[in-house]
Amino acid sequence: MQPQPRIHDKVGYCLVETLICNKLSERAEGKLHYQIWQHQEDKSFGISLCKNESSGGFSAELIQVTDILQCLANLKATEKPFHATAFKSLFSGKSANNHCFLAAVFVDQKLVQPHPMTERLLEVDVHFELWVNQLEDLVSTDKEITPTKTSKKRPEKEIENEVHQA
Question: Residue ranges under compositional bias (Basic and acidic residues) (predicted)?
């Protein structure tokens, strides 16, 4: 068995916000929790999945917003609806749920929407490129952003406590 490539840790990043969204399938139980991060030096943004309220594994790796926007631009250029599998390349982790959970986050962030005529297909929102402005607005309205100090995987409880204290 090949070792999984090292995922991008969150050292040097500050937690901006933890959000909750619905899954894409109406039959799915529980909600998804995800986090928006900002790098302390270059001010770039990243996003990561952090909790599934029901069963199903996922990768909590940080995905760069620039990579997300490039992927969405490529999909938008085709002018065709697509499946959530189009987001597989954004992850180094190989969980079968990664791309579907990320698609749910993108729907919540209004980057994509379900295709109106074809179930299980998505389309890129015409204003997806404005997402960075929305993320910057989050930072300017937040009182305090929590920097990450270690490269160890932090327990979910610790992250939840930070979010509740903010």
Answer: 153-166
